[in-house]
Amino acid sequence: QVQLVESGGGLVQAGGSLRLSCAASGRTFSNYAMGWFRQAPGKEREFVATTRWSGGSATYAYADFVKGRFTISRDNAKNTVYLQMNSLKSEDTAVYYCAAGTYGLGRYEYEYWGQGTQVTVSS
C-alpha cells in the first residue's frame, strides 16, 4: 500500500503561481511513477503530468495544455512529488490529485490516489 497526501492548493489570481506537494508513505517511493491529474466540476479526471525514476534519472511527461507553465519534480529522499504551477489560468481551476503507479498518461495506470487538493484561479 502507498498512502498519498496532497497539500498546497488554494485561491490564486490569474497569472499567479502555486506549488502543490504530495507526500508518500508506504512502499519504496522511487519504484513508482508519480503523476498529477485534475478534475474540474462536471468534467472527467484528466492527466496533467507524470515522472518516473529509472537508472538514476527522472523522466517527465506533460499534458499539452500545461507545457511551459507547470513543472513536475520529485525528491526521492523526502518521498515527495511536487507540481509547480505558473501563469495560472481560470481554466486550471480543479481538484488536483496525486497518484502513484505505472508510468503513463492514463488514469488507469495509477493504482494509488490521494484525496485531492482544490486549486481555484480567479480571473
Describe the structure.
The structure is a single chain. By secondary structure, this protein is an all-beta fold. The protein has strands at 2-7, 10-13, 18-26, 33-39, 46-54, 57-62, 70-75, 80-85, 94-101, 110-113, 117-122. Strands 2, 4, 5, 6, 9, 10 and 11 form a 7-stranded mixed β-sheet that branches. The chain has a 4-stranded antiparallel β-sheet with strand order 1-3-8-7, with no helix packed on it. The chain is globular and about 40 Å long.
Major sheet summary line: 7 strands, mixed
Termini separation comes to 40 Å
Q: What portion of the residues fall into strands of 2 or more residues?
A: over 45%
Order of helices and strands: EEEEEEEEEEE
Q: Return the structural class.
A: mainly beta
Portion of residues within helices: under 10%
General form: globular
Radius of gyration: 13 Å
Provide the residue-averaged pLDDT: 95
Q: Point out poorly predicted stretches.
A: none
Q: How many beta-strand elements? A: 11
Number of helices: 0
